[in-house]
Design brief:
Oligomer: single chain
CATH architecture: Orthogonal Bundle
Shape: globular
Helix content: 55-70%
CATH class: Mainly Alpha
Number of helices: 7
Number of domains: 1
Largest sheet: 2 strands, antiparallel
Distance between the termini: 19 Å
Radius of gyration: 14 Å
Number of strands: 2
Length: 147
């Protein structure tokens, strides 16, 4: 799948999920692109998990290595991740996490402003201290591809 094909497919799923959740669809697409290396990561290919969502609830799971940032270093750990039936299922789960999680309350209040929304989700979604910056850069690329 090319980056352009990934963006088109992700935009369809994000738009559908966003209609129910109110989350900004373009940010969802950009986050999926960033987290899954444009749908090329092993986790996205084998588990249709485009956001690095850890195992929880009713979903099957897969175990894979992942990088986590600590104060002092980046470390590789084994983690259990949720496995999804489809891209839409994964996107709806991600929107649900953002919609229900108390740590994302400020993000929910920022849905109308993509830059603020990105800054707010970045505080809790990833351990990478440059996550908001990286996500904003991918968002600009995604918007260019959808013109």
């Amino acid at each position: 799948m090319t980056k352009h094909e990934f963006v088109q497919q992700a935009y369809r799923a994000a738009s559908q999920s966003s209609k129910r959740s109110g989350m900004p669809a373009m940010v969802t697409v950009a986050q999926a692109a960033l987290e899954s290396n444009w749908g090329q990561s092993k986790l996205s290919r084998e588990a249709r998990n485009y956001f690095g969502i850890k195992a929880h609830g009713k979903h099957d799971l897969v175990q894979m290595s992942t990088k986590e940032c600590t104060k002092d270093a980046t470390v590789v750990i084994k983690a259990e991740f949720a496995k999804y039936d489809s891209m839409l299922d994964c996107f709806e789960c991600r929107d649900g996490i953002l919609g229900r999680g108390t740590v994302y309350a400020s993000a929910r209040e920022s849905c109308a402003d993509e830059a603020d929304f990105i800054r707010e989700i970045a505080k809790h979604w990833a351990t990478d201290p440059k996550y908001a910056e990286k996500l904003s850069a991918v968002l600009a690329v995604v918007k260019g591809m959808l013109k």
